[in-house]
Specification:
This is LacI family transcriptional regulator. By secondary structure, the protein is α/β, with parallel strands linked by helices. The chain folds into 3 domains: about 45 residues, 434 Repressor (Amino-terminal Domain) (Orthogonal Bundle); about 100 residues, Response regulator (Rossmann fold, 3-Layer(aba) Sandwich); about 140 residues, Response regulator (Rossmann fold), CATH 3.40.50.2300. The protein is about 40% helix and about 15% strand. The chain is built from 14 helices and 13 strands. The strands form 2 sheets. It has a 7-stranded mixed beta sheet with strand order 7-8-6-9-10-11-13, with helices on both faces. α1 crosses α2, α6 packs across α14 and α12 packs across α13.
Length: about 350
Amino acid sequence: MQNNKKLTIKEIAARLQVSTATISNAFNRPDQLSVELREHILAECNRIGYAGPGAGRRRLGGSGVIGVIFGTELARSLDDDETRALICGLAGELDHRGKALLMLSNSAIGLSVLEHRGAALIEGVICIGETEVPRLGERFSRCGVVALETQLEGVPSVRVDHYAGARAAVLHGIRRPVTSAAVLVPRLLRSAPVCRVQEADALARGDGRDVQRLLGCLDTLDASGLGRAPGRIWHLPDTGSLTARQAAREALECHPRPDLLLCMDDRIAMAAIDVATELGLSVPEDLRVLGYGGTVPQPLLTTVVQPEARALGRLAAKMYFGDVAESDCLLAPQLRVGASCP
């Protein structure tokens, strides 16, 4: 048997001329393959000394600590409800397995801790949200890496298709004629104040969850003939009530006033409905409002319901430990129609 401990699942798949998912299924989900194919793959892996996806990190279980890298500053990440829910789901699965969680920001100090002391401190890495770390999968391959709500080259991931979710919202919103639309999106910039933002400036931060929602809106509006909402994109630093009300009021006091408001968070949408009422507008007759998240229990709001964040965190942990096949797991959100945009 050859000693090829550094071989990756991608390299093994290329050698055997199959997909990485097929290699992972051979080790973790045998029911997904024929007996002949699985036996062939296992025999070849054994011959070249590949122990299977996740085997290396299961062997490195001495510290009992899983490092978590956030795509943004630690305080900013923990101020986001969705990110906190992801962490809760992840932590619950780690608790069940007797593992600890070490949270580190996407900073020079945090990365230095992982790179120079990682062998002693951690046995694996989970990245939450978009990261600016180059070649993260390669740099921490000794530990094993799983991406959560982001995509990294050569790294298995768990993501929601936010682009498709936003696209579904727009397609529903334009079923009636629309003259003007505005898009309200949190966390597009690092700046604190509510402000209008140009598409190019919003995209400069990368390709994360909120940018994907914005792109889904703009591409669909453009394809419908309404254009890319020039001058009608608002950045919100958070989803608090005061912030959301300010952005909604600015949008609704534009001339011409938008008759479709695309809010990429349910809390923003609910605040927008309140502001519209204060301005004497009727929802949905004068203004149609769509949200995103599925967090509003009553049937008042038309919104995109995404998979529950805690469940995503648990799924990422299960993928890390090899309980589910390592792959790019892209989950589809669903549109739920309510009174704000019937």
